[in-house]
Amino acid sequence: MAFEPRGAPSSTLLVGAITEAPGNKIRTASMIGWLDEMISHFDGLRVYEVTSSMSTEPGDLEDVGIQECPADSEEAGCADVCKGCPGRELCLSEVSKPDPEQEIIDTRLRAIKRKILVLSGKGGVGKSSIAAIISQILANDGRRVGILDVDVCGPSIPLLMGVADEPILDSQWGWKPVISPYGKIKTLSVGSLLSSGSQAVVWRGPRKTALIRRMIKDTLWGRLDDLIIDTPPGTSDEHLTIIKLLSTTNPDGAVIVTSPQKLSAGVVSREIKFCQKMAIPILGIIENMSGFCCPCCSDVSPVFSSGAGEYLAKKYDVPLLACLPLDPKLAAAQDGYNIQRLDSDSPVVAILRKVMAKLSDFKCNVAN
After folding, report:
1. Burial class (CB in 10 A: 0-12, 13-18, 19+), 168
2. Half-sphere exposure (CA, 13 Å, Cβ side) for 261?
3. Among 119, 262, 277, 293, which residue carries the largest CB count within 10 Å?
């Protein structure tokens, strides 16, 4: 089944300009009203049938009848797979047209030396936690760091970086990211644009795509040594959008995160295949929650079935960067992950420090 919102406005409404409000704060009544208006259109769902020849048997995606989206090709909006797609009209209106904003986007991104994506097809494996910690590790080494959260529906970065209540500022040069107190890291997330942390963003692909474009094009990142990009689970709109935006400035690679279970390995393998298809260099795999670290003696005991990280590394010939234990000290951090406070006691921070030292001279492994 597929779902379509009743009375949803044209997706092109999202790309309209946001007017400045008093105080130059984007998260003002004007901005909140704009977001609320977009969300309020999803007051109901109309259900219609979608026929598919896809097999219901389990197995790799390559073994079933799933056709890839041709959005970036000349067949965009015209291929058989486009019939019934809610984004077909948008593709038809943009096909064969050069992106008029790509030059502006490239100018922003060329000022950033290194761009690293944190990916995983599976949700709940700790992508945001790892992204927050490695950004602070880099900042503590004297590097200029930014972190971008493109998880539109479930942003976690504002809380993890200690900026949950801080608004994004607007200026004549663009959006000014919030500065995290943990390492003075430039932080941008849709969570900083919402009126409350509990507000749901119920958007379809074109609206997510337009917002992510604005987060790159209209943000005053300035000159950075590193931009860490935290992504949502899956291999869909957000991932395709950010990779397309980065494509002309050559992202340095992706860190793939998995949990130890065999089920997670099956899902994360699709993310690796996604990187291969999109020609994204894979820096390596991190197996998170690999055992429990005792808060008293620091011994690590296995909790889940293990080996997913090693299995994926061998199967796809990519490095296994680390196996991180569950650390109660991180779980108890209510005001975000301040590694200055956790560094002396947390084995997770110590392991990730070694990982980032390896990646500083690591040659990316691009799968053919």
Report:
1. buried
2. 9
3. 119
